Amino acid sequence: MTGHLAPARRPCPAAMAKIAPPETEEPPIPRTHPPLDPELAAVLAVVHDHLSPTITAEDIEDLRANPMFAVPDEALTRNGTVHLQNLSAPGPPGAPDISLLVLKPVG
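User: That's the sequence. What structure does it adopt?
Assistant: Structure tokens below.
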């Protein structure tokens, strides 16, 4: 071997017609995600055991009430280095206000 690569072979036009999508069709979006921190693997395994891969708007209230997914305010403030503020914004007419959790670094 001399270290040279052989030129790529081009399929014949008839073969390309079978494998190439029509030009009006957009290319598929890859269904992969970036690598996750390995330290999260154990947590994600537990979450996947208890959480459906498809969440609907109707599921959100039950998820918020589930203590397994609760994070205490003390954990969010990271030993006093983060300021936590609970606010609300008016919801659409006839709907409840929207709860907002604001986290900002102290200082």
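The CA atoms of residues 2 and 20 lie 33 Å apart.
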